[in-house]
Amino acid sequence: MTETATARLLIIGPPGAGKGTQASRIAERYGVPAISTGDIFRANITGGTELGKQVQAIIEQGELVPDTLTNEIVADRLQQEDAARGFLLDGYPRTVEQVHALDGMLSGASLDAVVLLDADVDAVVARLLKRAEIEGRADDTEEVIRHRQDVYAAQTAPLVELFSERGILVSVDGLGTVEEVAERIASGLDAKLNAPVGQ
Ligand code: ADP
Fold this sequence. Notes:
single chain, alpha/beta, Rossmann fold, five-stranded parallel sheet, 8 helices, 5 strands, globular
């Protein structure tokens, strides 16, 4: 891509689909920062900040942080210099309200593509239980994992249709090795970003 081109990208998919792993690869490929709301929240919890204290219990229960708070954090992050030529958002937007807020933040500029990392519930639950043994995330207990899947189905999955209607959805099968999935994403994204609008 040329120096002046932008890449405003999102990755969306159920908890455990591997968004974080793929997000850093996509970000590197397009030369944009990967911005994960989950990572921002976790860093604040670890750092014991005021924000961290506000969101800790919510996250440990697998609930969503309120839209107003989340929107504020993303708006702030997108104003930083490194996001001027694009970004890859991971874990945001997660509700219809957040989609509208993001549209407002971009003030007329549109998103270029949305990667849907698709995977069935049983596969992602199994993955998260395995990750729990390694990373020990407080929201990776079986009960909370199941709840996060329900929250995704109710609040976030409907956004896929919305992005599809906008003609910017790139749907990718999230099952396979990290390499295989990365290749699927790269070819899907390249095709979408080079395609005439609406295709
Ligand atoms: P996962 O996709 O595995 O659930 P994330 O790191 O994306 O992991 O998110 C972890 C938690 O952080 C979520 O369950 C939620 O509590 C909170 N969170 C992250 N992003 C958002 C968001 N956009 N809106 C509300 N809450 C969020």
